[in-house]
User: Fold this.
Amino acid sequence: MNYTNLELLNGHVSWGLNRIHLHYPNTSWRPTKYFKSDHNPHLKDVYNSENLFHVEQGYDCYFWEKFRTGYPKEHPLSEWMPEGIGEHDNVTWFPRCEHHYYHHDNFHKKAESWHLPAVCTAFSGISAAMQFAILEGATEIYLVGCDLGYGRPKGHDHFDEGYSKNPKQLSEWDTNEVMEAHRVARMSSPVPIYNATVGGELEIYERVRLEDVV
Assistant:
């Protein structure tokens, strides 16, 4: 992400995920769509304000439905997600599917394909975001910032050192989980997917240069 000229995306439909706003000081680009399907318990003090920030930008937002209400006090996860942001006109709410907690290393219980028009949320939010893009009419998908490579020194797994706040170093398992999301996407997508990321380790899709396609 730090090596991509995101200004090239201005004027095009683009989707931002999770904590993409941490990169906003470095670029004039803003996504036209914003997507978030996962909650990081290490960000329990900021998740609501960050979600509201994206809503207030005015672009279309796609949120996991629990971000609307949070968990009730009697729920065991209420400590990590006690409240939501309520209703907003520019938010599309969606449920997690039955495959959400399936993992790449569980051969007896894992998602092998998408199940459109219901969106599959297994493995990683990037897969679900691509599915929504297709449902919204995308005929081609170009990925940027999908470099993978988890297991680097803590704080260097994302474009911003403060991105995760996870006290533990991410591992090769995390890379394999996201890689599985891309493997399933490549097999399931009815439209072509290209990797326009600068560098990185994602070789499942044909690589292209963003400068050559926009």
About this structure: The two ends are 17 Å apart (CA to CA). The chain has one domain: 6-147+176-213. The longest strand covers residues 60-64.
